[in-house]
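Our consortium's second objective concerns turning raw sequence data into structural hypotheses that experimental partners can test. To show how far this objective has progressed, the report includes one record in full. It was chosen at random from the queue rather than selected for favorable results. The single chain below, 157 residues long, was entered without modification.
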Amino acid sequence: MPRKTLIKVFAVLAVLAIAFASFTALGGKSSMPSVTANAGEAPTITPPSGDAPAELKSEDIITGTGVEVLPTSTLTVHYTLMKWSSGEILESSWSSGQPATFPLSGVITGWQEGLPGAKVGGRRLLVIPPSQGYGAMAGHPLEKETLIFVVDIIAVS
């Protein structure tokens, strides 16, 4: 087999192996939302498909380089909230143009566990199961909903 053909065959096999590993890591049942990485702009979120994950998922879309979020931090962030079940955007601070400021200890568990380690300038995707979202608040309209948050860290104190 010519060398160029052999290289192409190995490249195709490598791509297939990565695709298979990704598919199996997700249990073959769901696809995580994809999020744009345009710093300083509202994110575009492509809704997920399949079953929602049962555990908290956290992924840096943009890796920040500033001050790190700690469990005791007060944050200033821009965020967008999407429902897993419908792909509907429920809320976004980008729409009002006003970021939100709050102590991390005063928000849902999914944020408290998913944001430490993020840094100013970063954008983090959080997929939060009901038990770490509003599930603890009986009667809350989102108590049974898996939540997708995209959080841009603006300031940490």
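The partners drew two points from this record. Residues 3-25 form the longest helix (23 residues). The chain has two domains: 1-30, 32-156. Both points have been shared with the crystallography group to help prioritize constructs.
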